Amino acid sequence: MIGTIPLSDVLLASGALFSIGIAGALLRRNAIQIFLSIELMMNAANLALLGYGAALGTHQGQIIVFFVIAIAAAEASVGLAIFVALFRHTETIDVNKINLLKW
Amino acid sequence: MSAARIVFDAFALVAILFAGLMVVGKDPIKSVLALVVSFFALAATYVMVLSPFIAGLQVIVYAGAILVLFLFVIMLLNVGREKPDGSRRPIQTVLGSLSVVVFATLLLGMLRSSGTSLPPQREAVGKELLPDPAAIARLLFSDYLLHFEAVSVLLLAALVGAFVLARREEAP
Amino acid sequence: MTLVDWIILLLRVLLPALIMPVFVIPLTWLERRGAAFIQDRPGPNRVGPLGLGQAIADMVKMFTKEAVMPASADRMLFLLAPAVAVFAALSTFAIVPYASTLEVGGKTIPLIGADLSIAITSLSVYAIVLAGWASNDKFALMGGIRSSAQIISYELAMTTAAAGVVLAASSFRLPEIIAMQQGTWLGIIPRWNVFPQLLGFLVFFIAAFAETNRLPFDLPEAEPELVAGYHTEYSAMRFGAFQMAEYVNVMVASAVTTTLYFGGWSIPGFHPHGVVGAILSLLIFAAKTFFFVSVFIWVRWTLPRFRYDQLMKIGWKALLPLALLNLLWIAGLSAWRLSR
Questions:
Q1: What does CATH list as the number for B1-81?
Q2: What is the complex's ipTM, to 2 decimals?
């Protein structure tokens, strides 16, 4: 037998990843790296969803994660398009400097 | 301490380590690469959590397409390393770190699982993995059909939106 | 899982990875002699009989050349890129069943590395993008960006064509796909997937050319336009690593094509037993793969290169719709079969 994985391990891993993601989102100035941290947070949530899905013996966890991945793809492309458009105007991606509503 | 648990913990540790490297790294390209490795390790953990289909999707879509897109944008905009030019005020760093610490403590303290564990892994040699794709497909096209179609419309909207947003404005 | 099981698992996974690079050497010889034959010239024939020593000479040259790295290049990424290329190429082979199951000592050992999905091919994009970016060189960057855009575009057509095969077999697992290609129709035509899915096979094979950066899709490394594309700044063994990765990719693409569409290690009427059967099935597989590798070489020296916009047009506007059409056709066929 290969054995079993306790759910607490999965949740701990997911929680740690999520905290790291929050740290990245709050403490970085580069907009792209903030975005990367957000993606990390989404993956942490995916892990938790899959863990619970497996523990409860249902496929619903996987279905939700399937949709989350698709939506993350859509959101990443639009977000990056916004960055590209923004960068053309402001020449910087430092979020502390992008502080005007109109220029 | 079962073999499955050791494998899962190992991959989870790798994922966390590289996620940390991603957050700390100054060069955006190295951050993206660290995240790629982290996502690969995460895909391995997904396999351990009995979701091989999602693991495959994670590698193809997330690590293979979305992060490549990030890489392209970073190269296109030629985003360099973060320069300490004084636009960050110390209060930001302090408050940010404080809130992260508080949040992490709360989160990790609250996570309880009442002793549940995942069902036992099957033998890896010569046996079938759970026949996920068929079961997922059946659910997707029956109970979740509306969600499925809605997501495809969303993807179409995102496609058009990204195209319009990133387009160069024509000179009047 | 006993220790023996772990050892068997390790061998199953590592053996192909270690053997594939060895096959690259005769492949370089084959490429040069094949090119010469098509171009009606002798080709390398000085070193050893029939020029076979040329491959060894090339290898020695690669190892002993001075490895130069541009001063303004990003050191870590520059060194990482060839490693990623080789890793992606070798790990993709892990999914291919190269022979039938081997029954030794009461344990059945399926001769396939691991049941991974074809996801690993997406890794090869990183090697090229990194090589292009890290070289800090305009030509390299352009080659890198073009190549990665090409790879991710054709990945779609390729996986959609493969999805047709998966649909017909109702399984993602390659051994099962081979199992459903046993037997014959009308006693003569083998039940290979290429016959009901000719369109899918063509799409897959053409996309495989684009995925491996082989002519006619090799604009990323085009000599006249881009010096050497993404590996301009690489020399000696680092360049050798990229070349090796490319040849391994060609072998893997041929291997996957034979598995998905031409029955892999099986021929109709052949039921392998024991070690002899496994070896025979391995030889059959090798023969079929060799045929497709020769087709890769043949096409390379026959067709001219596509221009970049033509390339993207073909990928998105031609191959992807055809692959979807193939999928529809197979779905209809399967539904009809089920309803009978």
A1: 1.20.120.1200
A2: 0.88
